[in-house]
Amino acid sequence: METIVHSYTRAINGFAAKMLPSQASMLQQMPGVVSVFEDYTVSLQTTRSINFIGLEDASGNTAANSLWKKTMGENMIIGVLDSGVWPESASFSDAGLPASLPAKWHGSCASSASFTCNRKVIGARYYGSSGGSPLNPRDVTGHGSHVSSIAAGARVAGVDDLGLARGTAKGVAPQARIAVYKICWAVKCAGADVLKGWDDAIGDGVDVINYSVGSSNSPYWSDVASIGSFHAVQTGVVVVAAAANGGIGCVVHNTAPWVTTVAASTIDRRFPSNVVLGDGSVYQGSSINNFSLGNSFYPLVNGRDIPAPTTSPERQAFFLFLSLCSAMGCSPGALDPAKAQGKIVLCGPPSVDFKDVADGLKAIGAVGFIMGNDANGKERLLSLRFTMPATQVGNTAANSISSYIKSSGNPTAKIIPPTTVINQKPSPMMGIFSCKGPNPVVSDILKPDVTAPGVDILAAWSEAADKPPLKYKFDSGTSMASPHVAGLSTLLKSLNPDWSPAAIKSAIMTTAYTQDNTGTTILDGDYDVAGPFNYGSGHINPVAAADPGLVYDVGKQDYVAFLCNIGFSARQIQAMTGEPGNCPATRGRGSDLNYPSVTLTNLAREAAVTRTLTSVSDSPSTYSIGITPPSGISVTANPTSLMFSKKGEQKTFTLNFVVNYDFLPQQYVYGEYVWYDNTHTVRSPIVVNAVSRLAIGEEKLVSEI
After folding, report:
1. How many domains does the structure of the chain reveal?
2. How far apart are CA 554 and CA 587, in angstroms?
């Protein structure tokens, strides 16, 4: 059996090998060995979205002020670390691209009789240390193809999924080239393969890397994504990554400050599939399917009213509660087939996959399926892909439908097939699955950084992933949001080749917006007000990002100082950077990094934060500051105005924070500060978590009258 799995030689110095724990321990003690850690796995985490982010107008033409008027990503290369690609997709056509490849390209294509590259997909590698099939760069899950086409797919007219959202698909940087690195098999990605993908992508000469994969959320020096991305950024490669998906309470991944971490939010397109009751009442629903019950009403029944009979009467009482719970969610086998046949069934939130519920209902002869939310689910609606006439409704609608069933002597309903509607409000809203802050690794760095379209995105798909095969498919996740920002980063780098990865990231963050199309703060998936832990600095704005005015730049030594400030040892810094790290005796805190947002955790009484701005504007200008302080926190700036006379000039300022314990209402409080001139608005969020009076040895005085 081979011992060495991968050698990292191009940008990262190291190797992956199979060995016993005792051998790993011995290796760790050898001179010159900086770090040894065990391998692990991580998980994989558009017709309208291009219009929604302002690159096209309402007619599908390039908008008058679009970034596409200046660049579409010509001569740029996006590296996609994912599950491979389906190269035959029309989204990866090389029609119209130059015959010659970019001179900076040093990669290769693992071509074979079953896989070839072209002038669009110019490189393809695969890594299978944990097994996997097929052993080639071909995508068999759909994820990698979807992600790649969002970032840089060619224009393809007449695209739809089940007849919905018909239009022209295209990537954010449609003229850019793509290099794929297949590090994932199914949904699992071995750390050894992940790091090898980073090493090769850096050496191959890509400009931007998209990483729609999770991280370990371990210290940066032992996380392969953090290590790989650090080396990428030091060579000038912009790195964009998904914030991760989950449910209530899931925490953000890919939190290193040199990575642009992207949350997911909706666009202004919906797929309504409403429920009409026999009494004429109509309730809003949402669905993705192409089934129709026609215009007929069908008998309507509540799943909890028709539990399957128990097989042994003496155990009936024991199983009654369990049966009712299963019936409420319409779990397979939980309903009485005789009472469900020919009916539309109302079900609560399922305890199993909703697809299994639909298959179970079809098997017992039900004609339709209404999936309702409970109180925890609130009014959130997801465009779920059902395999029968079905729709999802919110908690209020589900309760009303249930009441109708109880009160009506002959309850009936019909389900209206889904349609495509646009210009919906409010938009954007945060995806209910999008994982949130605070940053679990370094709390003084706000994550995610921004949000981008990631809900019901239509893009290229692998024809091996579904039966019957699909060329294009809707998918949702921060995995879909990340390539929107990777494509935008590609456009910005094409337009400004001298900008550092940190400058590009800053331009995207400081020009992001936090209000939806109703003029109010972006909402989360439960229709509650969202905040920086949901969307970071806000929703991306490509037009504004092309002309940010000022940027917060960061170099390698700044990142090394950051690692010192968060407590890294010299050995850990060397494991991270590949070079010896010497930290000063007095260390600062993570918030000292010149980051485009400010986060202070465990703030006691007061603190000062220094930032440096760099002008990227051709015109001289004077900026003034406006501050919206977090509740209970006083924030002042020194100086309060900055005059820039030329591009590249830098100015430093200090923000002073003082806690007012008489008016501190909650654990985390939020605000912002804005530098502005006559043209630009450079906005940064503020997040503060102050320690209690008791923690700093003070007590609040209370007087009684």
Report:
1. 4
2. 18
Given a contact cutoff of 8 angstroms between Cβ atoms, the answer to whether 454 and 265 are in contact is yes
For the sheet containing 668-676, what is the strand order? 598-603, 681-690, 668-676, 621-628, 641-644
Contact 631, 665 (CB under 8 A): yes
- Residue 447, CA atoms < 13 Å, CB-side half-sphere: 28
Q: What is the pLDDT of residues 303-342, one digit of tens each?
A: 999 998 864 444 444 444 444 455 677 989 889 999 999 9
What is the extent of the structural domain holding 671?
594-704
CB 653 within 8 A of CB 594: no
Answer whether residue 625 shows pLDDT above 70. yes
The 3-state DSSP class for residue 536 equals coil
Pair of tokens at residue 628: 């919206």
Task: Say which CATH number the domain at 383 has.
Answer: 3.50.30.30
Token match 């465009």: residue? 383
DSSP-derived secondary structure letter, 646:
S
Handedness of CA 94, 97, 100, 101 (dihedral sign): negative
Residue at 580 is within a domain? yes
What is the C-alpha end-to-end distance of the chain, expressed in Å? 83
Pair 285, 409 in one domain: yes
Residue 538, number of CB atoms within 10 A of its CB: 27
Q: Cα–Cα distance between 352 and 355 in angstroms, integer? A: 8
- Name the residue among 386, 445, 428, 619 with its Cα closest to residue 520: 428
400 is an active site residue: no
| Tokens matching residue 621 | 């200008």
pLDDT digits (tens, 9 = 90+) for 646-696: 999 999 999 999 998 877 666 899 999 999 999 999 999 999 998 866 555
Choose, from 6, 143, 146, 539, the residue flagged as catalytic: 143
Out of 82, 161, 199, 449, pick the active-site residue.
82
Task: Please tell me which of 27-31, 566-570, 684-688 the model is most confident about, judged by mean pLDDT.
Answer: 684-688
Q: Which of 83, 331, 427, 479 is catalytic?
A: 479
Smallest CA-to-CA distance from 67 within 508, 674, 682, 621 is with 508
143 is catalytic: yes
**Residue 540 domain-assigned?**
no
Rounded-to-integer distance, Cα 229 and Cα 211, Å: 9
Residue with token string 């770090």: 35
Active site (annotated) includes residue 479? yes
